[in-house]
Amino acid sequence: xxxxxxxxxxxxxxxxxxxxxxxxxxxxxxxxxxxxxxxxxxxxxxxxxxxxxxxxxxxxxxxxxxxxxxxxxxxxxxxxxxxxxxxxxxxxxxxxxxxxxxxxxxxxxxxxxxxxxxxxxxxxxxxxxxxxxxxxxxxxxxxxxxxxxxxxxxxxxxxxxxxxxxxxxxxxxxxxxxxxxxxxxxxxxxxxxxxxxxxxxxxxxxxxxxxxxxxxxxxxxxxxxxxxxxxxxxxxxxxxxx
Length: 242
Prior knowledge:
alpha+beta; 8 helices; six-stranded antiparallel beta barrel; globular
């Protein structure tokens, strides 16, 4: 198998899409100091971060006065965090007015959140991305522009609207998700597809003490369900190691 060439954009997208949590930085209301919190994360099909937060939380009260924020994602798949990649995404937090689709994607990824997602003080938010800063090892620190970081969804409406059916079709093939995960070189386990988008899919397993995620990227764009299945078959037959 061949190793893919390093790409700042692809590395940043992978870190965001396979993260379970991120460090949220807001501006403290009373003092103006940076205020750090841990949040669970998902993302919209283009990679825009989604958060489920209590409006009573300190970071939510900070954001109500100043929506500027950042999310720091790190690679949890390596033993030494200094050797792994990390990306800081900066922008402004906004409440999602029509949260049904965001909620579906978030809860498919983090089903344990369904225990409190319906509470009156909880709401779904997104980080409106402005830019990102990637550190991908020694000597690899660089800015990633918003227009590069987020996936262009133009012409992909058919796939986006059929995501549930595409996921169900893959899951209907017993063991296929686990075989996909094995091709990524991850530990054996009961893996499942929890989301798809035009350039790949997200896998999750509950084996072990924590839910783990991995990202599979095709290297091409799928615009319909049929395109997606064809791209996935080509990836399965290729010799690419991610």
